[in-house]
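In the design runs reported in the main text, the only information available to the sequence generator was the tokenized backbone. The following block is the verbatim input for one such run; it is reproduced so that readers can re-run the procedure and compare outputs position by position.
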């Protein structure tokens, strides 16, 4: 019988100490994989609906084949895994600043998203998404999906804050094709101030609330997926 708790990895990264652990949850009666940055919880395999919808909602807005997609933030891999499930995706680049996170997928430590590191359409890249989209030449993508910070106001590192301004979003927009889609995950309800900023840069925007069952509380929880194009 497997141990009820196991720390699978613990390493120092540019943004702090990051760890991956597996625990058996008696309430949900499943193995749960969790990522922590220092003492802060980043993500859990128990709650993945919005991470999956981040990809599916954005890709639904694109009506063509041969799609190129950029994902900022690999994490447990649910956004990238969902993107690859769309047969129209021909090329997927996933950027993460934490080398251990990429290593977890290459070592096959996350069974629900296994295969990311070996899918020929997918590249796991050790890079700072925020630096790339604001400083690099204009390599373009049909969709850019971002899941790094908790919310546009609750960022993991102070250097990320400028991205969520009109100037930062405009710099990122250079990397979208003419009718490309930008999608952003947030842990909070829709933020009217950020929606206004998003509308300064894009012609069409929306904030989709994703509601999902929470077996720990016996109720429901929600996240937000922002979508922008045009």
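Verbatim output:
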């Amino acid at each position: 019988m497997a141990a009820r708790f196991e720390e699978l990895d613990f390493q120092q990264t540019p943004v702090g100490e990051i760890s991956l652990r597996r625990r058996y949850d008696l309430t949900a009666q499943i193995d749960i994989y969790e990522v922590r940055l220092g003492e802060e919880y980043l993500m859990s395999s128990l709650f993945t609906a919005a991470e999956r919808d981040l990809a599916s909602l954005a890709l639904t807005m694109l009506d063509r084949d041969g799609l190129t997609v950029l994902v900022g933030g690999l994490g447990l891999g649910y956004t990238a895994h969902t993107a690859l499930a769309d047969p129209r995706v021909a090329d997927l680049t996933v950027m993460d600043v934490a080398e251990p996170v990429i290593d977890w997928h290459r070592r096959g430590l996350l069974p629900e998203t296994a295969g990311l590191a070996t899918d020929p359409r997918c590249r796991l890249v050790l890079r700072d998404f925020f630096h790339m989209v604001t400083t690099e030449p204009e390599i373009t993508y049909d969709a850019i999906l971002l899941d790094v910070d908790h919310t546009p106001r609750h960022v993991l590192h102070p250097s990320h804050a400028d991205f969520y301004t009109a100037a930062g979003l405009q710099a990122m927009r250079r990397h979208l094709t003419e009718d490309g889609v930008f999608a952003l995950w947030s842990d909070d309800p829709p933020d009217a101030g950020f929606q206004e900023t998003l509308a300064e840069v894009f012609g069409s925007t929306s904030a989709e609330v994703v509601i999902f069952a929470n077996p720990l509380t016996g109720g429901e929880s929600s996240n937000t997926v922002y979508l922008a194009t045009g």
